[in-house]
Amino acid sequence: MTIATERPSRPSRPSRPTAPRGGELQGPTLSRVVGDGRRPRRSWRLGTRLFAGNALFLLLTLSLVVAFASWDANRRAERRIREAIAPVPRILHVYVDAQSRALVDNVRSLADSVGIKALLSLAGTDAAAATFHDSAVDLGRRLGPGTVFLFDAQGTLLARSDREPGEEAGRDFSGVSWVAGPLYTGHPASAFILEIKRRRSLSLIASAPVYQGQGDEARVNGVIAVASPLSEAQAAEIGRLISGEAVLVANVARRGKPLDLDVLASSPQLRGATPAALLDEPTREALFAARGKDVAGFDFTAGGERYTGAAVALTTGGGEPIAALLAARPKSAELAAFRALRGSVLAVGLLALALSLPLSFAFARRTSRPIEQLAEAAEGLRQGRLDVELPKARDAEVKTLARAFGALVIELEEKHALERLLAQTRRSDTAEIIVGDAAEADPDFILPGQLLAHRYHIKAVLGGGGMGRVFRAHDLDLDEEVAIKVLSNLPKRESTLQLLRKEIKVARAITHPNVVRVHDLGESVGLRFLTMEFVSGTTLRRLIDQRGHLELMPGLQVAKQLCRGLAAVHAGGMVHGDVKPENVMVLPNGIVKLMDFGLARRAGLESGQGGTVAGTPDYMSPEHARGAELDERSDLYAVGVLMFELFTGRTPFDAEEYADLLRLHLYAPPPDPRELRPELPATLSEVILFCLQKNRLERPGSATELEQALMRVRM
Question: What average pLDDT does this structure show over 318-335?
Answer without folding.
Answer: 84
